Amino acid sequence: MTENPEDGSMARSAPVIPRDEGEHGSAVTRVATELQEFFGISESLLPCAVVVEPRERRVFAVGLTERITLYRLLKELKIAMEPGIARVNQARSEVARAREDLAGRRRRRWQATEPYGPADRGRIARRLREAAEGMDDDAVRLSHWLSDRLLLARPLTTDERQQADALFALLHGRFGVLPLRERRGLLRAVRRAVDKLNSLDDVPGTPPEPCTDADLRVVDGQIRLSRERLRTREAGLRRALRNIALSPLVLSVTRGLGLEQETTRGLLTWRQCTWPVTVLAAPERRRPTISYEWA
Fold first, then answer.
1. Exposure of 192 in the CB half-sphere (CA atoms within 13 A)
2. Nearest-CA neighbor of 43 among 57, 61, 60, 25?
3. What value does the mean pLDDT take over residues 145-169?
4. Cystine design at 122: which of 115, 171, 211, 230 (Cβ 3.0–4.6 Å)?
5. What are the residues facing 25 on neighbouring strands?
6. Is the pLDDT confidence value at 205 over 50?
7. In the prediction, which pLDDT does 175 show?
């Protein structure tokens, strides 16, 4: 149905053949003849359906009758394939979940070890607490506070930023007994760790991510398990795909429809297709044999 843009009325449209009817019919006949010659199918087997199994390089020519139509053949094949397809879909879903799990663990591993991520912040926090020994009370208190605060994966609040700035002002130029180069390097690392915290999404209550070497070893072990689980799921998918091979399904379905496997009947001696072609057709009716006896 199409709508007339002028008055809004509806008009019924019919499919249009791109060329005239005679040329269209000629093209269809030519294609059918080329396929018939390619597979080497004799006129005696027509009408038939050709099923190609590319993985096994096999071809099946299934003879059609009034009882065994193309619709019935395809329907029976689909019914036979449904359990295998369901297993394949389940296996694909398991593979997708395993890949997502592995990607998530790798992403968390990277986030834990990225520059000024949780692992770096944990090391900087320990260095800051150690360097605070021997300072005055305010510097020690703020250093201990910031070393604990660096382990929380969320941005500093306005009040916390003021405390951090106060600590930076106190520590600028006097970092206990540390040499000048180490002192400046640690102060620079602390500033960058704070900047990293402030660049995170503000998610109150987010637990600290793994930052110790022991935690990272646990994460690495989980990644190995996820990788092995993915390999197992992928092997299961390959098995499920192999179990829905088309050849046994075609043979089983056609046998159930009462067709018999032939070797040469309905095939020409020469054909372009080099793969084995199996004919599945209704058994030929044998004519009754009449014998005469003379009295």
1. 14
2. 61
3. 85
4. 211
5. none
6. no
7. 55
For residues 61 and 47, what is the distance between their CA atoms, to the nearest angstrom? 10
* pTM of the shown model: 0.50
In order, the DSSP letters of 188-252 are HHHHHHHHHHHHS---TTPPPPP-SHHHHHHHHHHHHHHHHHHHHHHHHHHHHHHTT-HHHHHHH
Instruction: Read off the tokens for 161.
Output: 């930023």
Residues 6+ apart with CB under 8 A from 13: 1, 2
Extract the tokens encoding 128.
């800051």
CA angle 115, 204, 149 (to 5 degrees): 50
Show the tokens assigned to 285.
């009716």
* CB proximity list for 125: less than 8 A, separation 6 or greater: 146, 147, 148, 150, 151, 193
Q: What is the predicted pLDDT for the residue at 267? A: 85
Structure tokens at 287: 């004519």
Cβ pair 271, 40 in contact under 8 A: yes
CA-closest candidate to residue 111, choices 229, 230, 206: 206
Please tell me whether residue 114 adopts helix, strand or coil conformation: coil
CA–CA gap between residue 282 and residue 62 (Å, rounded): 9
pLDDT at residue 271 in the model: 85
Q: Is the peptide bond before 47 cis (omega within 30 degrees of 0)?
A: yes
CB contact at 8 A, 111 and 121: no
Position 231 confidence tier, pLDDT thresholds 50, 70, 90: very high
Say which residues have a Cβ less than 8 Å from residue 192's Cβ, sequence separation at least 6.
Answer: 116
Q: What is the rounded distance in angstroms from the CA atom of residue 249 to the CA atom of residue 202?
A: 57
Query: What tokens appear for 276 in the block?
Result: 């084995």
8 Å CB contact between 61 and 280: yes
